[in-house]
Design goal:
There is one protein chain. The protein is built from four helices and two strands, in the order βααβαα. It has one domain (2-82). The protein has a two-stranded antiparallel sheet. It is 61% helix and 4% strand.
Length: 92
Amino acid sequence: MKNAVEDQVASLYAELLPTVPEAHPGCPVCREDVMVYALNRLPPHYVATLKGEILTRLDIQVGQASTDATVAIMDGLRFVARNPRCGAPPAP
């Protein structure tokens, strides 16, 4: 059993990180904080089989679910950049 949204958020995080200049690239603490921020704002999609995982991935990679995930990650990147727990200086 797993939440298929986690894989989507991880993939989108890698794509979106370079687009936010104030983000802290390569910092594992900030990465996890952004992922937690986004996942707490998105509905989970739990799957138990490979077939269910494939169908769910296809469903959440298009349309509103994909847009919602992108917005949640972008918000998370900006929030964590302004409030880093890793000790880095906050972004302006």
